[in-house]
Batch of 2 targets.
Target 1
Amino acid sequence: MRSKVVTIDRHIIDQERSYPDASGRFSALLYDIALAAKIISREVNMAGLIDVLGLTGETNVQGERVRKLDAFSQEVMVKAMDHAGHLCCMVSEECEDIIPIPERFDIGNYVLLFDPLDGSSNIDVNVSIGTIFSIHHRVLDGRSKRNSPGTMADCLQPGFRQVAAGYVIYGSSTMLVYTTGVQGGVHGFTLDPSIGEFLLSHRNIRIPDPPAKVYSVNEAYYARWSRQQQRLVDHFKGVNGERGGGYKSRYIGSLVSDFHRTLLQGGIFMYPPDSKAPRGKLRVLYEAAPLALVCEAAGGRASNGSRDILDIVPGGLHDRTPLFVGSASLVNLAEQYLELPDESAGQGSES
Ligand code: AHM
Ligand code: MG
């Protein structure tokens, strides 16, 4: 038996002690996210038991059908986060515009960006899904003043400016994984439903490298990929004249689940551009950037194929980006293939 049980609250307080000027606001913000995660987790686990499955009949900003659990999770996140005075605004996959803080509540200095329930097409079939979150300080320049509502400039910041990021996976157990960046490391907490607490179960996660030989991509889109992308996957498989091979393929189709496996076991997850989706599918602000920060803080890498995800300055709240994330050596390999000139991409490789 372990000598010390560490709750997420205690862990956050311990971490905050290393910052003497910390106001406690940031810790309180993380508690509120953990509370929202518990409520969403409870509902996800009840999904087969109560009438929460099926469609609301509405369409969200991405033009996708909204499921009831998406709507529920969106409401839980907003209601858990809007009143405590930590935030100046929020951004969600489910809302086209910035979510303002209601006038009756105090305005804070953080921005929260989130995907309340990613992978929702998997809900009905009991596949693990997740919540992804990203936290920025607001931009305190001439345009944004303390106590004034959050602006686009506060939201459209590059990922390297995140002060924290993480995700919750609702799987065989519910886990919350978060980081405050490379210095703080990446820590995972498993929800003990009997006491309603997230307990530290994975301290200082490091992504394996040399990695597990695992690649994760929706290979059904092979015919729509660039020749470079096709050759990269041919390399993993050791076919069509590419050296390499010996890799396993794992693709759940639920980003948090595919990422969580990649983080713990190593490998590479890819959502590349294709002829139908030239900028990929995943969103910069609340999908790619937070997972990139987690991965980099765990010793991995995240790229859009040619540059670090964390360097991307989004032009809009719902901008999309290709994503290559996982063990650094495999993301480097992916970039090498993707940077091949078109003419050589058509020929056999000696890579
Ligand atoms: P969502 O945000 O609408 O739930 O979609 C994102 C999901 C990710 O969880 C997953 O990685 C991806 O879509 C799967 O897409 P595809 O079905 O094209 O492979
Ligand atoms: Mg999503």
Target 2
Amino acid sequence: MRIGILTGGGDCPGENAVIRAVVKKAEKYGYSVFGIKRGWLGLITGEVEPLTHFSVSGILPRGGTIIGTSRTNPLKKEEDIQKVMTHIKKFELHSLITIGGEDTLGVAKKFYDRGVNIVGIPKTIDNDLSGTDYTFGFDTAVSIATEAIDRLHTTAESHDRVMVIEVMGRHAGWIATVAGIAGGADCILIPEKPFDIDNVCEIIHKRHKRGRRFSIIVVAEGAVPVKGTRLIAQDESVDAFGHIRLGGVGNIIGKEIEKRTGFETRVTILGHIQRGGTPTAFDRVLATRYGVAAVELIKKGEFGKMVALKGNKIVGVTLEEAIAKLKTVDLELYDIAEIFFG
Ligand code: F6P
């Protein structure tokens, strides 16, 4: 029996650990695994290659994905949908494992509805997929962001500066909130809670009055002000799923803080550093468990599902549940972060 595997959307630390786990677990059942190149694009173009024990050897700690990824949306053209169906047949793929976030798994659900045997695996550094406590890659992104905050702390303190650090998080501020708590941020701005720049400046002023002459402000790229609510995009372009490229809100906030408070301010945009490089031990283990569980679901014939972490158990949830709505930040967690503002 042949299983096809693809990685879609932005790459994510831990993808190779999943691929390795799938290949090794599948081998135990005598299944063979085929890597589909560059996400859904590989099923449109027919670029598929066998993955063996040998090809996945040594990839556990490696960042990125050995089979490549893209933001291709095969549902945009009827002829692409037909090509995907034809290639699944041509390569005799009994089932597909699709590793991705809301877009990739949204497409997976549509192909499942057309009769394709699909199992999903939740991947995104943003941690904004429903149905699971954690997506793999999030822990690594949080560790990188926390280390960056720690490093900014010492230089902020030495120079009596305000440091604004912008992290990823398009619609959900999970990275900002968790890394902000871990790094002792003085203020955290997330998409779920539109911010008032006056309040941010007040927090900084309060610290100065207390003799704390530096501040760390963590901002999610999707954060918006209460007044004049508008996302800050890098340019006008959108991807195949209609998403604009965010980035730059940190610069605007930094300028505004300096103008209003007169305190010297610097801005760091962490960007794709959060997505590159080796996964943490937590993500390696989670990714491995997800890979193994996905093969188990295939063995049991349970399709249209996504493997998920609930508490400490890996379970299967429907793709429908996973993509129904974005999982935004738990505001109880944000309340905890807020205790330490100022
Ligand atoms: O979806 C994950 C993510 O890293 C978002 O946090 C970010 O907005 C986006 O991808 C960046 O996409 P790209 O790699 O296409 O610039």
